[in-house]
Amino acid sequence: MKLMFASDIHGSLPATEKVLAIFARSGAQWLVLLGDLLNHGPRNALPDGYNPAAVAEKLNTVADKIIAVRGNCDSEVDQMLLHFPVTAPFAQVLLPTSRLFVTHGHLYHPEKLPPLAANDVLIFGHTHLPVAQRREAFYFFNPGSVSIPKGGFEASYGMLDDGVLTVRALNNDGVIAQVDITP
Fold first, then answer.
1. How confident is the model at residue 16 (pLDDT cuts 50, 70, 90)?
2. Based on the structure, what is the number of domains in the chain?
3. Which residues are paired to 93 by β-bridges?
4. What is the pTM of this model?
C-alpha cells in the first residue's frame, strides 16, 4: 500500500495545490490529512495564499481518496465546507504486520501515547516538525507542515512506500527523514 501524508495546511492554497499535484503523480492510493486544514489558528501567522474556502474546494476534488483526522484548529464549520469526514480525533490503517494510528498530535503524541502494540506506528502532525524514527517498540512519524514549517525545516509531506516512511521537502522532493517499518 502506498500512502501520502500531509499535515497543517492551515488554509494555504499554494501549499494545497502542491500537495494535490504531488498526490496526483505519486501513485498513492490514499491522501491522509493530519488535521489543521482550513484555519491558521491564533498562534500562527497567516500562511502564503491564505484562502480556506478555495482550499476546501481543491481538497473536495479528491474527497473519495482522503482519510482525514481533526486538528486543534478544525471546527464543525470546516466540516460544512469539506465533502469528506474531518471530525474524528484519530483513524487507524491496518497493514499486514502493523497498524498506523493516525492523529493530529494535540491529543496523542510520543509523550502521551494511545494504546499501541509492538511495531505500531504513531502518525501525527501538530508540531510542524518532521520526525521519522523508531523508539523502543514503536515508530513515530510526523510529515512536518506543508504551509508553516518550524524548526528551520522546509515545508514537507510524507510518503509510505514499500514499508518505508519518508518525509520529503514539498518544493524539491528531497528526503528530510525516513524510517523502515518492515519487521
1. very high
2. 1
3. 100
4. 0.97
What number of H helices and E strands is found in the chain? 3, 11
> Domain of 28?
3-180
Between the alpha carbon of residue 120 and those of residues 37, 74, 143, the distances in Å are 25, 26, 17
CA distance 144 to 129: 5
Question: Could you give the angle at the alpha carbon of 103 between the alpha carbons of 145 and 18, nearest 5°?
Answer: 30
Q: Mean pLDDT, to the nearest integer, of 88-104?
A: 96
Span between the terminal Cα atoms of the chain, in Å: 16
Cell of 55: 482550499
Q: Which residue has the cell 503524541?
A: 109
Instruction: Quote the pLDDT of residue 183.
Output: 79
What CATH number does the domain containing 119 carry? 3.60.21.10
Could you give the angle at the alpha carbon of 168 between the alpha carbons of 22 and 170, nearest 5°? 50
